[in-house]
Amino acid sequence: MSEDAIPLAGVIGHPIAHSRSPALHGHWLRRYGIDGHYIPMDVNREHLETVLQTLPKMGFVGVNVTIPHKERALALADVVTDRAALIGASNTLIFRKDGKLLADNTDGYGFIENLKQGAPNWRGPDGPAIVLGAGGASRAVLSALIEAGVPEIFLANRTKARAEALKDEFGAKVKVIDWVQVSNVLPDAALLANTTSLGMTGAAEMRLPLDNLTSKTVVTDIVYTPLRTPLLDAAEMAGCTTVDGLGMLLHQAAPGFERWFGQRPDVDDALRAAVLAA
Ligand code: ATR
Predict the structure, then answer these.
(1) Which of 111, 179, 191, 216 is at a distance of 20 to 30 A from 119, taking alpha carbons?
(2) Which domain holds residue 93?
(3) C-alpha of residue 129 to centroid of ligand 1, in Å
(4) Which residues form the Shikimate dehydrogenase substrate binding N-terminal domain (predicted)?
């Protein structure tokens, strides 16, 4: 690609029609007057490798990767950042000028930046965190919380074996508890984070006894459809600072945008409104 070519980026997934990333990056491109494009691409599993080899030749500088390609994208990369290796998946790929494919993961970063913006008084070392869920999103959240200095993480998941596997990987700070034990550790928790799909529109309801929740616990949900989940509503009733999940999506996009288009973008109310309207 020549130096003055218009930079192209995009998002690869299957399906992709409901991705909010094009609206998000499109907003930033317009806002900063950048001559570039961000394109959604529906790519199935068997075509992923070929597509990733072809895009740089077409002028693409990188892509976001979403379900179901995040793990495979990591495996196809030539260079992997530490945080992507720790999470075991990539959501941000950079087509380097030397021809190498660099895989990063900004999900954990997005989670923490969202917390910093929505609960500015929260600090990692403040106290234990409770994490609900042991899927892909949980991996990103656990790695980010450990990096933020959280002293102890109570991990609860419907399928306990998945939580035990994450504990083995992430170390002694992670303590696996049963779902019903969450209420015992709630009084001391500085943070409660839902990484499951419970509470999402169309998904099952979250059944978690929250009687022991006090206003000193910050509560966050990675679900953002609806924006105010039943968990966040209950936490607000208990006087907690609550942080919705949309901000994680917005913040995880920022490092890729900066890398591809050369502008550090703001995550602000105008961006939220643009993404919600999409
Ligand atoms: P993601 O990558 O979004 O984390 P995932 O890997 O499918 O997606 O993980 C979904 C998480 O939501 C898991 O923790 C899952 O619990 P299990 O490991 O027991 O499957 C949790 N989850 C989904 N539906 C659930 C339900 N009805 N009740 C309890 N937990 C549920």
Answers:
(1) 179
(2) 8-106+249-276
(3) 19
(4) 11-93
Please choose, from the candidates 107, 139, 39, the residue with its C-alpha nearest in 3D space to the C-alpha of residue 252.
107
225 burial class (0-12, 13-18, 19+ CB within 10 angstroms)? middle
* pLDDT digit string, tens, across residues 93-127: 999 999 999 999 999 999 999 999 999 999 999 99
For residue 264 and ligand 1, the question of a CB distance below 6 A is answered with: no
pLDDT of residue 4: 73
Residue 211 has a CB neighbour count (10 Å cut-off) of: 7
Distance (Å, rounded) from C-alpha 105 to C-alpha 87? 7
Q: How far is the CA of 135 from the centre of ligand 1 (A)?
A: 6
The answer to whether residues 177 and 264 belong to one domain is: no
Shared domain for 169 and 196, answered yes or no, is yes
Neighbour order of strands in the sheet with 37-42: 37-42, 8-13, 60-65, 92-95, 101-104, 79-80
For residue 143, give the CATH number of its domain: 3.40.50.720
